[in-house]
């Protein structure tokens, strides 16, 4: 168990190396190597669930390696797992074999390279979730782009180059801001503690004033918001999703988008809690705009894949809404919704891939009446769509409900603190409206694709799902009901960590209030430098702050 | 349609028993799972109705009586209307054709919905949000920035042509500008000591700077 995290991370990479030595003409061998590798990857990750100690809110299975002898510079390779990342890692390893099996027959060229990149991407994604050091996190974060670049750019649709470049530029611009902020934190840690470090745990000890926090938070937030994606940074997503091959879309929707929300959870919010407090209304508002906007634009899409892509914008809005609500229901709902979205939307992309493989069209108007021709496919599609729309009994319901509940609690607190109706309950009402719109665009698509008359003669001869395809969807359907009917199994594992995480962020908000706003800025990086600049000692600064009693009195007077 | 309706009818009889409210069972609620389905998930977000309101069964009875009355009344009316004994339907059709038409078309609710909500919303989403906000404003901005980068690269790339003559020409122009600036503003604006310190830093002893500055420091 000592090395389990590195094993989980690097098993897919080993499989990728094995692929290199597989003859490129032997398609079957290539597929089986890829499939067995991802299956093995899932198998070795199972002990993480069973060995996970839910009560322990810290990092578990921790591993730290010296990296290129640069320990003194703060570059160590650290892996760890906690309640925030456990299910996301499991989601990644779970989707691995499904993605490979789902691509069994729809890759038309360069099979070896295709599965090589899928496997490599698997390692990079797991590495990002497991990193406990910002340097490692960033390296994996950027590495993820490369396989995705090739997957869309080589195996994509007719406009794949435009989509790839757009995807690349969007994410790289975000990542550059992130990198700049990471360097700043690296320097700041040395300025405050005299030691170079990029370990999450060390960085959490930094004392950063509100002004500096705001800049750093925004740099992190843009990097993460592009990945989520949040309105208005979302336009790469429909293109990338539509042009990507099925496997690419599933990985993109299933795991890559969660990198953004995970980034907020793991880094953005706990590192800069004061800034988070200030900017919460903005992010809440953007989330709600994303929910409604994504749903409305999804509704009018003529292309099934684009419709599902825009629905992702809407669904990711719920996750951000829950996470920024910063209460137990909201954050747990947000994490649960990350898993739900990975499963339901991943399954939707697979389903669109199934029909595309048969007809080579994704336009809704090319179908109609499929229910008569492909009954099994129809039942599966409707089931998955309903889970995506949040039908009670399926996974989507629990997550969506909890995020809305968390947002409602947030609105109640905001309203009590004097926020206007629009910026409190109005936002939540908007988010709730998105639930209805979610049902609208999914059911309308179902109506047009599956019911009515068969519009095209050739669609009368479509073959229903084969055994392999059914086997691909079986585990997804199991998860849809398991998470919908027994969500507590999943919530129990993360709950203590979430509670501790919320307490950390809230403590951080209070601690920030006690710091001078410019502490941590270039000229005033540490308390010593700040005192020298301003001529006020740390004790004097703290002494002039209102005491707790005074604080409470002032607050009481405001009400 | 009859068979599905029969199935639904049968299910609706059973469905009511999934959670029998305490009003029928004394205060012991018969515990079927529906009542506690999300209980553990929402443990700390539960809201309970005020005890005095819950204890007042008048509202509960009243609501139940009302809904049962509405259901029974509708059944009776439908029986009356369609059984043919009373020719109520024919009476309506002949004497109140407009009312009949209105009811026959379900108050035109679908049409009103279509015209006031669905069509405007679809139009707004397609032409406004998708075609304009997404494709023109956001994508347009992104594409302009990307094009700008490309054009800058092409323009800057010309400096890297390896053409000696154009490099020499650029150098000559630059020199001319510097000479012109020095000619106009003189060198008084330049603090040579500071410049020296910047270039050389602390590595130099003070001598160099002092020598340049004529010993002013």
Strands in their spatial order, largest beta sheet of chain A: 1-2
Q: How big a fraction of the residues of chain A is strand? A: under 5%
Low-confidence stretches of chain B: 208-217
Number of helical segments with 4 or more residues of chain A? 23
Total strands of chain B: the figure is 0
Alpha-carbon distance between the two ends of chain A: 54 Å
Fraction of residues in helix of chain A: over 70%
Q: What is the helical fraction of chain B, as a range of percent?
A: over 70%
**Rg of chain B from C-alpha positions?**
44 Å
Q: Specify the biggest β-sheet of chain B.
A: none
Oligomer: heterodimer
Rg of chain A (CA only): 24 Å
- Percentage of β-strand residues of chain B: under 5%
Order of helices and strands of chain B: HHHHHHHHHH
Which sequence of SSEs, written as H and E, runs from N to C of chain A?
Answer: HHEEHHHHHHHHHHHHHHHHHHHHH
Structural class of chain A: mainly alpha
The biggest chain-chain interface is:
A-B, 24 and 19 residues
Structure summary, number of beta strands of chain A: 2
Q: How many helical elements of chain B?
A: 10
From the structure above, extract its key features.
heterodimer; A: 559 residues; mainly alpha; two-stranded antiparallel ribbon; 23 helices; 2 strands; B: 217 residues; 10 helices; 0% strand; elongated; disordered C terminus
């Amino acid at each position: 168990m000592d090395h389990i995290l590195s094993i989980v991370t690097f098993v897919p990479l080993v499989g990728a190396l094995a692929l290199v030595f597989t003859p490129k003409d032997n398609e079957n061998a290539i597929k089986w190597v890829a499939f067995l590798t991802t299956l093995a990857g899932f198998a070795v990750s199972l002990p993480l669930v069973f060995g996970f100690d839910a009560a322990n809110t810290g990092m578990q299975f921790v591993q730290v390696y010296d990296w290129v002898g640069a320990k003194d510079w703060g570059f160590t390779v650290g892996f760890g797992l906690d309640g925030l990342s456990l299910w996301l890692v499991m989601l990644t390893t779970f989707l691995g074999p499904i993605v490979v099996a789902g691509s069994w027959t729809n890759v038309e060229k360069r099979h070896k390279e295709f599965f090589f990149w899928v496997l490599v991407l698997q390692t990079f994604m797991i590495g990002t979730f497991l990193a406990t050091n910002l340097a490692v996190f960033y390296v994996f974060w950027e590495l993820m782009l490369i396989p995705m670049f090739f997957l869309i750019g080589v195996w994509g649709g007719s406009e794949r180059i435009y989509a790839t470049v757009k995807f690349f530029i969007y994410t790289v611009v975000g990542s550059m801001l992130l990198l700049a902020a990471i360097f700043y934190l690296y320097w700041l840690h040395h300025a405050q503690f005299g030691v170079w470090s990029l370990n999450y745990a060390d960085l959490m000890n930094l004392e950063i004033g509100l002004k500096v926090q705001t800049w750093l938070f925004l740099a992190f937030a843009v990097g993460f918001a592009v990945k989520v994606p949040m309105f208005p940074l979302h336009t790469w997503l429909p293109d990338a999703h539509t042009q990507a091959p099925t496997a690419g879309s599933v990985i993109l929707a299933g795991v890559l988008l969660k990198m953004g929300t995970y980034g907020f959870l793991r880094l953005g919010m706990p590192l800069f809690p004061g800034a988070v407090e200030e900017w919460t209304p903005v992010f809440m508002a953007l989330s709600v705009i994303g929910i409604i906007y994504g749903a409305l634009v999804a509704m009018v899409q003529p292309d099934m894949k684009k419709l599902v892509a825009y629905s992702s914008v809407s669904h990711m809005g719920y996750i951000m809404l829950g996470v920024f609500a910063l209460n137990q229901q909201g954050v747990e709902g947000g994490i649960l919704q990350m898993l739900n979205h990975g499963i339901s939307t991943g399954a939707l992309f697979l389903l669109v891939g199934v029909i595309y493989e048969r007809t080579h069209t994704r336009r809704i108007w090319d179908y109609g009446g499929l229910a008569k021709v492909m009954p099994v496919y129809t039942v599966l599609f409707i089931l998955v769509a309903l889970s995506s729309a949040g039908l009670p009994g399926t996974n989507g319901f629990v997550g969506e409900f909890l995020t809305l509940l968390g947002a409602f609690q947030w609105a109640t607190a905001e309203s009590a603190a004097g926020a206007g109706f629009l910026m409190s309950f109005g936002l939540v009402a908007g988010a709730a409206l998105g639930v209805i719109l979610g049902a609208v665009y999914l059911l309308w698509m179902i109506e047009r694709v599956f019911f009515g008359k068969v519009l095209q003669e050739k669609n009368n001869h479509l073959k229903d799902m084969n055994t392999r395809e059914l086997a691909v969807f079986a585990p997804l359907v199991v998860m849809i009901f398991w998470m919908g009917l027994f969500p507590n199994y999943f919530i129990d594992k993360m709950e203590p960590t979430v509670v501790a995480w919320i307490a950390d962020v809230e403590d951080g908000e209070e601690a920030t209030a006690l710091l001078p706003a410019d502490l941590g800025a270039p000229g005033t990086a540490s308390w010593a430098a700040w005192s020298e600049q301003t001529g006020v000692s740390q004790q004097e600064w703290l002494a002039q702050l209102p005491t707790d009693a005074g604080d409470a009195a002032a607050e009481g007077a405001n009400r | 349609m009859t068979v599905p309706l029969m199935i639904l009818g049968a299910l609706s009889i059973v469905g009511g028993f999934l959670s029998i409210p305490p009003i029928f069972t004394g205060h012991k609620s018969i515990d079927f799972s529906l009542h506690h389905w999300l209980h553990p998930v929402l443990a700390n977000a539960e809201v309970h109705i005020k005890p005095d309101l819950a204890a007042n069964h008048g509202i509960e009875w009243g609501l139940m009586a009302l809904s049962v009355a509405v259901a029974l009344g509708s059944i009776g009316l439908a029986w009356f209307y369609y059984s043919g004994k009373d020719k109520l339907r024919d009476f309506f059709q002949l004497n109140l054709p407009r009312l009949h038409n209105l009811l026959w078309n379900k108050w035109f609710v679908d049409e009103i919905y279509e015209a006031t909500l669905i069509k405007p919303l679809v139009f707004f989403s397609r032409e406004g949000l998708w075609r304009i906000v997404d494709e023109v404003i956001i994508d347009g901005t992104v594409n302009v920035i990307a094009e700008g980068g490309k054009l800058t690269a092409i323009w800057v790339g010309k400096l890297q042509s390896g053409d000696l003559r154009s490099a020499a020409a650029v150098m000559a122009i630059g020199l001319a500008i510097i000479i012109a600036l020095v000619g106009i503003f003189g060198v008084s604006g330049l603090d040579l000591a500071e410049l020296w310190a910047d270039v050389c830093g602390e590595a130099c002893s003070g001598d160099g700077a002092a020598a340049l500055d004529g010993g002013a420091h």
